[in-house]
Amino acid sequence: MTANQTGFEPVFCTIVPPHLLDKLAQAENPAIAEPARKTLIQDASLRTDRRLTTVLGAAAVAPPKGAAAETVHRTIYDCQHKTRLPGKKVRGEGDKPGKDATVNRAYAGLGATFDLYLKAFKRNSIDGQGLPLIASVHFDENYGNAFWNGRQMVFGDGDNEIFLDFTIPVDVIGHELAHGVTQYTANFTYFGQPGALNESMSDVFGSMVKQHALGQTSEQADWLIGAGLLHENVQGVALRSMKEPGTAYDDDVLGKDPQPATMDDYVYTGRDNGGVHINSGIPNHAFFLLATHLGGSAWERAGQIWYDTLIKGDLKVDTNFETFAKATVAAAQQRYGDGEEYQGVLKAWSQVGVATS
């Protein structure tokens, strides 16, 4: 039985990991500590809501009647700094931009994500069936996160001390919506190595959303997740780096980026659901190595292999790194034969210390 036949995993996925918010909650500056504590409390409540949604079942949302096939259907809501979702509708599909830059960025980011999946992978929205894309902005006050709750995207405005507006980096939007793609396909369990794969798939596809929107090749891309999100006073450039895991930030308040690039530095921890945001650096780095080795646009060959693996790889919910790596090797061979792509996948996984045989 494949993972997507088992029912949706009760996952609440945020871009900022709880271990990082824990660090901020201990800061001496109350302007940093209080928003982090409040965000942690809110996230805990939302995780409970996500579990209940899974048990009771989330309502299916169909494209509008008469809508053209393979056309994006976006709706943006404003929470007006409250926590009730989705909030007040402020922009629908086809509406002209308003004065709120956050609303406009969310709308554009949903469109950029839809475009990548349709144009690069022939996938009609995140479920493959034209699922309308919903986002709520201005969630709560000083909320320091963005998340996918199984039904929609939600963005906080940040605390303006550590985090800025979460709609600024388009790859954050792409990252969170990719959790929806995983939810509808492999549905990896959100703990340990399967959870790290869940996070890595979101970083991989989130990065490709950004590269696709900017028209960048693998060589031109910065391979940063969340560039532009951190306040200028923070010693860091992003939340994560796929090119050099462990180097995204090194700050007195935020701490040091804990991501490993290879299995030699794999982090064994019970925090962060067994290190899902930490050890995702290993498969992230493998994808970066493959994409830059093959050259051109990441979605042209490397992305096709990862997408084939996610969609056709017969992956289980508890898939670990080694099993996933072997599945990418099989996907590369099936699509491209024994040539450069196949050899590149073998080399990439070898470089990060994950066995493929």
Brief overview, please?
With 357 residues, this protein is an alpha+beta fold. It contains 10 helices and 10 strands.
Question: Which features would summarize this protein structure in a list?
Answer:
alpha+beta, 357 residues, 2 domains, two-stranded antiparallel sheet, 6-stranded mixed beta sheet, Elastase, domain 1, disordered N terminus, single chain
Describe the structure.
- This protein has 357 residues and is an alpha+beta fold.
- The protein contains 10 helices and 10 strands.
- The protein has a 6-stranded mixed β-sheet, covered by helices on one side. A two-stranded antiparallel ribbon has the order 7-8.
- The radius of gyration is 19 Å and the shape is globular.
- The two termini are 23 Å apart.
Poorly predicted ranges: 1-10, 50-60
Rg, alpha carbons: 19 Å
Structural class designation:
alpha+beta
The count of domains is 2
Count of discrete alpha- or pi-helical segments spanning 4 or more residues: 10
Distance between the termini: 23 Å
- The portion of residues assigned to helices is 40-55%
